[in-house]
Amino acid sequence: MKKLFLLLAILLALPLSAQQKLKVACVGNSVTYGYLLPEREKNAYPARLQALLGDKAEVANFGHSGATLLRKGHRPYMSLPEFRGAMDFKADIVVIHLGLNDTDPRNWPNYRQEFASDYYALIDSMRVANPKAKIWICRMTPISHNHRRYLSGTRDWHAQIQPVIEQVAANADAKLIDLFAPFHERYDLFPDALHPNAEGAELLAKIVYAHITGDFGGLQMPATYSDNMVIQRDKPIHIAGKANVGDRIKVVLGGKKQTATAAADGTWSVDFKALPAGGPYELSIEAPNKTLTYQNVWMGDVWVCSGQSNMEFPLASSIGGKETAALAGKMDKLHLYHMLPITTTYDIEWDEATCQAANRNEYYHPAKWEINNEQAALKFSAIAYHFGSMLADSLDVHIGLVLNAVGGSTTESWIDRSTLEWDFPNILYNWTKSDFGQDWARGRALRNIAASKNPLQRHPFMPHYLFDAGMLPLKALNPCGVIWYQGESNAHNVELHEQLFTLMEKSWRQYFNNDALPFYTVQLSSIAPRQSWPHFRDSQRRLAKALPHTYLAVSSDVGDSLDVHPRNKKPVGERLALQALKNSYGRQLVAAGPEYASHYTRGTSIIVHFDNADALSSSDGLPLATFEIAGADGIYHPAEALIKGNSVKVHSSKVKHPVHVRYGWTPFANKANLVNKQGLPASTFTTETF
Q1: Radius of gyration, alpha carbons of the chain
Q2: Using one digit for the tens of pLDDT, what is the confidence trace for 595-647?
Q3: Over 80: is that where the pLDDT of 467 sits?
Q4: Are 47 and 61 in contact (CB under 8 A)?
Q5: pLDDT digits 0-9 by tens, 402-455
Q6: Element housing 402 (H / E)
Q7: Which H/E stretch holds residue 510?
Q8: What is the pLDDT of residues 10-56, one digit of tens each?
Q9: C-alpha triplet 61, 245, 27: angle, nearest 5°
């Protein structure tokens, strides 16, 4: 590949009179042809590739709509005039993008075993035409969920063909161009679910250009690399970036050096042994024409702080927040990485430029690591700040907090597209009108994007969007855990949220390649009159018990009856930190309030056993409140509750044969007052299953 890069560099630098034009053949189907594009002769990807290569190259479009790679397919490419034209062209470089039409039920199901051999035959034919030809074959562009055959086979067959293409590239000494990953999340670039629009064709041309020239824009690092960054301690350190093909990369960290060479797709990586907490280090990354140096790098713990508006809620607006921020200089082990959205999801209409930026996944301003300071602290998440402060103080290590929360965001917006495509595809359809979405969230999204003329306009509330815009940039982090406060925009459908939250955990653990990645979640607070919230809070409690490495912080005692954004955030952040100190760091402490464990009936009473139940009491010195019991009729009655050791005896004269008990079962559970010795509140709960 390096030799070809040098050949191209020399060839494109020579005057035209001294050499023949470099001949590039684009072989393919309707995507190559430019089907549905206005002025396709100018806008199809081969035409845009011609513009990028300039007049020292000749790019020819040999695409044919509907063509199959399979020679027994319904329209075999090797039987078409474009194939004969490509042979006669005798190209120096051949770029092949075929396979999409082979997902037709007439093709792959019947002739899949012949796909590889037919691909080899096509490649061999191009080499017969020009034995010196360099061949690139492409992983197929996506077919989105809106395709009419998506769930009847196309999704599955498309996925089955991709690894065969990779196998062919490896065995045929052909280079591989990935046209799937760069477009997978951008289904808005494919108006009919199959063919790119002009913007998509331009991007496709740029990808092909980078591969055949080796020019990937020089040395580039992930967005999370900057001065003051935190690298996860006690784990192998993987440093990866991009550079031009063949570039020799030297990486120096803490006096240790590693080298790598940029591969055919521009990627490179090196690995260092794990380092303990400490610093500061200097990290230097050097390529032939560029050096990046990062100062004040620390080994510590990195946490992702995500969710919706209550995680986003700034320290400046919280109780005692300004006073806390004024002391930021004393909390110098905190490092803040704040991904601020370019606009809000308030009740406003975005302008066209904002809509277009959102479509490009540019929903966040560029961010960089900051050492804790008053101004940065005031804008940062109050909950995350108190969480990180308690960890830094307790552990005496540097803590990196990455905040990407977005007000109003839905659970489904934080799940990657592949997970939804395979585990919950129905949620992808018609998201602005689907009953899967909460009325409020759908209405707000439509208000925001009302000015857009794009029928496939994207928005932070839509499925997988915030994973694309807010999680994909974090791949380099290797975090030790997640704190999560979200659910208000999914509380209308408890059963749906249970599926989505489970999928979100799966999605993030796969993404960070950590099956044990812990999630520390905040149970929804108290507010009136959100009638579904008691049930939702109980569902969160049950999820935390059922899902591995999932822990809950109760917040119902610090809610606000009239405001979905209660201002008392410090207890919530510190309760999350207690859970982390116990479950991630092994500290021997009580991290939660009394937790319902079991119950049984004794005469006309129900005895409820609790864990974390040392020295049970009421938080206000008054009798325990908000306990209710029901008989077989399912009708609940207020009950007297008396503490008996680590249990509570619940009784009502109106229920002679009690079956179920519940506690704090109101949207605004301000009178629920059961706490343990540590003063931590019990979760609201019910023993009834729904």
Answers
A1: 29
A2: 999 999 999 999 999 999 999 999 999 999 999 999 999 999 999 999 999 99
A3: yes
A4: yes
A5: 999 999 999 999 999 999 999 999 999 999 999 999 999 999 999 999 999 999
A6: strand 398-403
A7: helix 494-511
A8: 444 444 444 589 999 999 999 999 999 999 999 999 999 999 999 99
A9: 15
The DSSP code for 666 is: S
Q: Count CA within 13 A, CB hemisphere, residue 552.
A: 25
Identify whether the C-beta of residue 244 lies closer than 8 Å to the C-beta of residue 215.
yes
Tell which residue, 67, 163, 176, 62, has the closest CA to residue 116: 163
481, exposed or middle or buried, with CB in 10 Å at 0-12, 13-18, 19+?
Answer: buried
Whether the Cβ atoms of residue 250 and residue 219 lie closer than 8 Å to each other: no
The CATH architecture one would assign to domain 2-213 is 3-Layer(aba) Sandwich (3.40)
Spatial CA neighbour of 504 closest among 378, 420, 391: 420
CB atoms closer than 10 angstroms to residue 242: 21
Nearest to 112 by CA among 67, 78, 151, 163: 163
Buried-exposed string 637-659: b where 16+ CB fall within 10 A, e elsewhere: eebebebeebbbbbbbeebeebb
CA 180 – CA 100 distance, rounded (Å): 11
Beta strands 605-611 and 398-403 are unpaired
Write down how long the chain is: 690
Which residue intervals of the chain bear CATH 3.40.50.1110? 2-213
Q: Determine how β-strand 134-139 pairs with β-strand 93-97.
A: parallel
The angle at the Cα of 678, spanning 675 to 681, to the nearest 5 degrees, equals 30
Q: Residue 319, class by beta-carbon neighbours within 10 Å (0-12 exposed, 13-18 middle, 19+ buried)? A: middle
